[in-house]
Write a structure and sequence with these properties.
Strand content: under 5%
Order of helices and strands: HH
Number of strands: 0
Structural class: mainly alpha
Number of helices: 2
Largest sheet: none
Distance between the termini: 85 Å
Number of domains: 1
Helix content: over 70%
Low-confidence stretches: none
Mean pLDDT: 90
Shape: elongated
Length: 83
Amino acid sequence: MTTAFAIRTLIEIAAVLFVIFGVLHEQKFIDFEDKIIRFVAKRIYLRKRKKAIAKKRAAQQARRQRERELEEQRHAKIYRYVA
């Protein structure tokens, strides 16, 4: 028995048990499905939000860096004439 076949067999057994449990305890199974769906949806939402915040933060840092460079150039021009 290969490892792949053993894993496939275990997955098939789990699927059959889920079907039997679902038939016998339909409302509990529906509640379980809803809980899993909420968990996955929350994870997707949080991942998208985290990426958006990181992207916004990176854009702000790049803008600040450009502003600092421009300010340094302005100071360099001013002090070049003064010194």
